[in-house]
């Protein structure tokens, strides 16, 4: 089967076809998601919360992500695999190079970093050295203590404009994909229309170029809590494979997310 690449994702956006993504942390689930034709799998630093049971993502290490990336890579034959750079692993450009190299060597095809303006030179340096980068704006969970909680971002005009400007700058710096988390749907729509690269939303409304969920939320089994933007796809089918394929189908047909999973 033909592998999903950055060009495939770009083509999906150009054709107006939605990108379906899930987090994955091990080979068995990765294989199941891959067989159901998920487009993208992310080894998220959310593993600190859903696997380890922490209240935030801050204590996840580069070795944690590298280990789970190895696991996911072994279960994947088609999907595009992205690995999160954990908290402080890209605090300087030099650190970013060393740590991104570890994740690529573990089987990632792209790394994801949280932040805007301050990351521009790090991102262009990574891309110039051959490491594809995914941006992440809006609610960036590694800044939870700066935000004072997991709160929707971009509700005030000035803050919204900052996110829009950052998205444009990230694209210019060379990111080939952007995750937008917990921002008002109208802002996510505007950014998705403005950028050439695909925008994948989580709690960002139905008008982004794709959707991502934490797999445990999609199965309704998360240890801590269930964010409003998630949906339990096991609730009315009782079969994991059907839950995954219904989620993918709902993303492709824009049945997910509904207004009840989105913010104004
Ligand atoms: N299980 C899980 N799901 C996630 O989506 C997720 C993680 N863990 N860990 C890493 C980050 C943290 N995320 C979170 C966590 C909580 C909220 C939350 O409680 N949001 C409120 C909105 C609050 C507001 O209105 O400002 C909500 O009601 O959903 C949002 C994102 C997203 N990511
Ligand atoms: C929620 C997604 C986008 C993420 O960054 C994670 O799972 O860590
Ligand atoms: Mg993350």
UniProtKB/TrEMBL annotation:
Cellular localization per UniProt: Cytoplasm
GO cellular component: cytoplasm
Residues holding 3-methyl-2-oxobutanoate: 45-46, 84, 112
Coiled coil: none
Single Gene Ontology BP annotation: pantothenate biosynthetic process
Residues the entry annotates as binding Mg(2+): 45, 84, 114
Textual note on the cofactor: Binds 1 Mg(2+) ion per subunit.
Cofactor: Mg(2+)
Catalytic activity, EC: 2.1.2.11
Major enzyme class: transferase
CDD domains the UniProt entry points to: KPHMT-like
Catalyzed chemical reaction(s): (6R)-5,10-methylene-5,6,7,8-tetrahydrofolate + 3-methyl-2-oxobutanoate + H2O = 2-dehydropantoate + (6S)-5,6,7,8-tetrahydrofolate
Pathway: Cofactor biosynthesis; (R)-pantothenate biosynthesis; (R)-pantoate from 3-methyl-2-oxobutanoate: step 1/2
HAMAP family: PanB
Protein family per UniProt: Belongs to the PanB family.
Role this protein plays: Catalyzes the reversible reaction in which hydroxymethyl group from 5,10-methylenetetrahydrofolate is transferred onto alpha-ketoisovalerate to form ketopantoate.
Subunit architecture: Homodecamer; pentamer of dimers.
Protein name: 3-methyl-2-oxobutanoate hydroxymethyltransferase
Organism whose genome encodes this protein: Glaciecola nitratireducens (strain JCM 12485 / KCTC 12276 / FR1064)
């Amino acid at each position: 089967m033909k592998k999903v690449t950055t060009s495939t994702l770009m083509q999906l956006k150009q054709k107006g076809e939605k990108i379906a993504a899930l987090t994955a942390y091990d080979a068995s689930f990765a294989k199941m998601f891959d067989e159901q034709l998920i487009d993208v799998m992310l080894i998220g630093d959310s593993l600190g919360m859903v696997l380890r049971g922490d209240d935030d993502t801050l204590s996840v290490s580069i070795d944690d992500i590298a280990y789970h990336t190895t696991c996911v890579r072994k279960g994947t034959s088609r999907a595009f695999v992205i690995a999160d750079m954990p908290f402080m692993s890209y605090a300087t450009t030099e650190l970013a190079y060393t740590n991104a190299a570890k994740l690529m060597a573990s089987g990632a095809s792209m790394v994801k970093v949280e932040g805007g303006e301050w990351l521009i030179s790090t991102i262009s340096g990574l891309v110039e050295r051959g490491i594809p980068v995914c941006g992440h704006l809006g609610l960036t969970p590694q800044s939870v203590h700066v935000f004072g909680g997991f709160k929707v971002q971009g509700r005030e005009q000035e803050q919204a404009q900052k996110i829009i400007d950052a998205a444009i700058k990230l694209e210019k710096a060379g990111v080939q994909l952007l995750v937008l988390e917990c921002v008002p749907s109208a802002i996510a729509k505007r950014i998705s229309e403005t950028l050439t690269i695909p925008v994948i939303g989580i709690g960002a409304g139905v008008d982004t170029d794709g959707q991502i969920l934490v797999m445990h939320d999609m199965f309704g089994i998360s240890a801590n809590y269930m964010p409003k933007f998630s949906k339990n796809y096991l609730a009315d089918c009782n079969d994991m494979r059907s839950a995954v394929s219904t989620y993918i189908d709902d993303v492709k047909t824009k049945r997910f997310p509904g207004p009840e999973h989105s913010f104004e």
